[in-house]
């Protein structure tokens, strides 16, 4: 399935209109998470790029780009070895960037537990810039939707789901999906409604929130609030 957000939402809504609710989450759940996580990766990538751009070190930079190329070619073990060397011997921003990229490669390999642990470790490291710590915690939170409990997702990212935080839209969406997956429709409705009510929510995030609110209403487990 191509991850075109608008066409994906239309397809889910067609399922809703055709009354085939029983299999909607089973069929679309992983794609809802995959489409949404592109926003998280993009936001986190922007934060990390800005950090890199402000701390360039040309010699180590070539090694980092070579490691990224290995990862892009799915040579994961070679990439991890190169990134581990950069983490230990790199200069400037590169040890932190190597840690972030290595955690991403672990997720790419399918080792979610290792990736979550690595992102959580970065998120708790006070020696790392706050924006990069938040990006790491956000990545851990999204991985925990499929690989953990709502409580674990909440512990990782709920404090970012507040007005003014750059990651609040992604945090609210992750918390809403984790609630939905756990079967807590009332809580899921609250999180998705908070996205809809925030006029600064990106259009694609707000559209997905509307779609999830429709799914929740159609489930009959958390009817829409009456005005």
Question: In terms of topology, how is this protein built?
Answer:
Layout: H1 5-17, H2 24-54, H3 58-72, H4 76-89, H5 94-109, H6 112-123, H7 130-147, H8 150-157, H9 168-182, H10 185-197, H11 203-219
Walk me through the structure.
It comes from Rhizobium anhuiense. Belongs to the YfgM family. The chain is mainly alpha-helical and 227 residues long. Helices cover 76% and strands 0% of the residues. The model is unreliable at 15-22 (pLDDT under 50). The chain folds into two domains: 60-148, Serine Threonine Protein Phosphatase 5, Tetratricopeptide repeat (Alpha Horseshoe), CATH 1.25.40; 150-226.
Shape, per Cα inertia axes: elongated
Question: Span between N and C termini?
Answer: 37 Å
Question: What share of residues are in beta strands?
Answer: under 5%
Overall helicity:
over 70%
The CATH topology of the largest domain corresponds to Serine Threonine Protein Phosphatase 5, Tetratricopeptide repeat
Radius of gyration, rounded?
A: 19 Å
**What is the number of strand segments?**
0
SSE arrangement, N to C: HHHHHHHHHHH
**Overall number of structural domains:** 2
The DSSP helix count reads: 11
Specify the CATH architecture of the largest domain. Alpha Horseshoe
Structural class of the secondary structure composition?
A: mainly alpha
Return the CATH class of the largest domain.
Mainly Alpha
Indicate the low-confidence ranges by residue numbers. 15-22
Main sheet?
none
């Amino acid at each position: 399935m191509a991850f075109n957000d608008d066409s994906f939402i239309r397809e889910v809504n067609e399922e809703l209109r055709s009354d085939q609710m029983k299999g909607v989450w089973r069929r679309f759940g992983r794609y809802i998470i995959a489409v949404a996580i592109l926003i998280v990766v993009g936001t986190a990538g922007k934060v990390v790029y800005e950090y890199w751009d402000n701390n360039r070190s040309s010699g180590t930079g070539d090694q980092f780009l070579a490691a990224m190329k290995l990862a892009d070619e799915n040579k994961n073990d070679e990439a991890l070895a190169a990134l581990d060397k950069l983490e230990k011997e790199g200069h400037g921003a590169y040890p932190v960037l190597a840690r972030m990229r290595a955690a991403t490669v672990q997720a790419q390999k399918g080792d979610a537990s290792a990736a979550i642990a690595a992102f959580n470790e970065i998120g708790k490291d006070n020696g790392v810039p706050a924006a990069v710590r938040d990006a790491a915690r956000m990545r851990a939170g999204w991985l925990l939707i499929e690989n953990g409990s709502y409580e674990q997702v909440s512990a990782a990212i709920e404090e970012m789901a507040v007005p003014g935080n750059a990651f609040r839209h992604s945090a609210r969406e992750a918390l809403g999906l984790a609630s939905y997956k756990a079967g807590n429709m009332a809580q899921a409705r609250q999180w998705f409604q908070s996205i809809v009510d925030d006029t600064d929510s990106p259009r694609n995030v707000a559209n997905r929130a509307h779609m999830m609110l429709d799914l929740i209403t159609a489930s009959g487990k958390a009817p829409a609030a009456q005005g």
